[in-house]
Every structure is written in C-alpha cells, then in structure tokens.
C-alpha cells in the first residue's frame, strides 16, 4: 500500500507540473492537443465539445505530459495560425515554459502551509544525557547500517556520545571514512556498526540521523510565512548539493525513478509527518531540475527563448531540434544508468 501511495504522490507532482504548462498555454490562447496522465495505450479518453484538447489516462498511469501545438521545433509551422506555440510572443512562450516549475513551487508552498497548520512547526528536542535517534533519513548511511528511530548512540569512533553536538563533532570531520558507532536498542547494546559518513554540500560528514522532533502549533500568518520561505531554502540546499556532486565528481546523490520511489515508500511508511514534507521536497526538486539550462529540459528551452528575447531573432529551428534531441538522449542514458545502479544496488 505504501508503494502505491508513493507512486501516486510522485505522479501527482508531475501532473501539477504539466497542469502549469497547460493553464499558461490556454491563458495565452495556445492550442493544446493532448493532456495525458501516464504513457502507453489510452484506457480513458475525453474531448470536451468544441475543445481541441484530448484528455486521457493511459495504461501506465505514471508521470504525465502536455502536447502544445507547434512546440516541436521540427514541426512544419503555419505562420497564419495564431494558436500555434511559435506564433505567440516570446514572453508568452517563456511564461508557458516557466509555468510548470512555478506550479511545482506553488504546490510545495501549499503543501507545507497545510502541513504547518495540521501538525505544527517541527522543532528538534535534544536530550542532555543521551543521543536518542528521532528519525533516520531514507537511503542514508545510518539506515543502510540498520539504525532505527529510538536507538541510543553511545559511542562513535571510540568516543562516548551523549548529545547531538558530540555526535556531530566526531562525524563531521570523517566524511567518506569508515567509522565505528555503538548503539543501544531497548536497553541492549548492539554489535558495533561500521558506517561511512557521506559528504554534505558543506563538505562535512553526515550519517543521516536526527534528534526527536516536537510539533508546536503556529498561527496562520506564521504558517504562511514559513511555507513561503521553505521552497526557497530547499532550493539553496539542493543547488549546494548539485555543486558538491560536480565538485566531487560523484553521482551518489542522484536518484532515478526506482530510487526516488523507494525513498518515497520509506517516507510513507514513517507516516504523514515524514511523507508530506518529502513530497513537498520532491516538488521543489522537480521544479528546480526542469529549470536547469540543459537541452530537452524547460530550462534549455528558456535559454533559446532568452537568446531570442535579447537578439530579437529566432534560433535556427533545426539546430534547436537537434540540440534538444541530443539532450534528451543524454538524459535518458543517465536515467537508465542510475536506475540500473538503484536496482542492482
């Protein structure tokens, strides 16, 4: 059941993204030929009377896409058809492309706003005499070693541990170095765990544990303010993470569809207080990823539109089509490799 919830949650975010494109396109009078939820043979299809758009649900109801007429640079374009994507002004086209990521950011804000109102604002609670694990991050070194919420970390690298600060003092300098941790569970000391901390964007070691959280009620105003800032903070963190991956020439932080679904499933198993912020985080990640200035992504298309806006002349359509095709093939190759790693790992 949890994996179904996870898949539906991720698919919902893609639907949100494509809905942003669809609403912006329709607002500017563009013709949308197809709005599809999923891939493969359609199992449900509906076209409202007088509408050019076919709404469909396919046999594989995972992800979604919107087909805007004339958006493919390789298509033959009728310059007299005002409803085609390329026949609209450059700002209208830029807004339409940007609208997908904007919808994801807006969704993250609304999700966190509802979360804060329903559960309150999370605050870490630190014990003064014991390092109690409140949460173990999905896919983190601590989880892979078998650490669980409620465990008490009593020793790290030969040093006694009683607080989170003592744990950080030992762990942070030992990024990518095997380190022995001693844990007690239900009053019983477990065999020592050898854990290799990952390197954070701040170039510090981390194993992926948090102290217990309490949730304090907040006002509507405070919830709205925190929800507004939350996606911006997460964007900064994710950009720092991407920079660290490039700097360290590592792909450890990259998750494919299998890895992402696994993490979402694990979050769902921990309950709504973990799953809801995770879905909001994925929404931010989806919006940010699509804005990267890479061919085939929305950000890549915005680069070409930005060129047109600055130079007041359009790029060569055939060159743009080739660039996006090469980018798409590269992205598909990366997805295949990462998925293979996730499955075999």
Automatic annotation (TrEMBL):
The chain crosses the membrane at residues 94-119, 275-297, 321-340. GO terms for biological process: cell division; proteolysis. It is a multi-pass membrane protein. Residues 94-188 form the PDZ domain. GO terms for cellular component: membrane. It comes from the Bacteria. SMART domains: PDZ. Its cofactor is Zn(2+). It is found in: Membrane. The keyword Membrane applies. Keywords: Cell cycle, Cell division, Hydrolase, Membrane, Metalloprotease, Protease, Transmembrane, Transmembrane helix, Zinc. InterPro entries: PDZ, PDZ_6, PDZ_sf, Pept_M50_Zn, Peptidase_M50. GO terms for molecular function: metalloendopeptidase activity. PROSITE patterns: PDZ. Its main location: membrane. CDD domains: cpPDZ_EcRseP-like, S2P-M50_PDZ_RseP-like. Belongs to the peptidase M50B family. This is Intramembrane protease RasP/YluC, implicated in cell division based on FtsL cleavage. It comes from Sandaracinus amylolyticus.
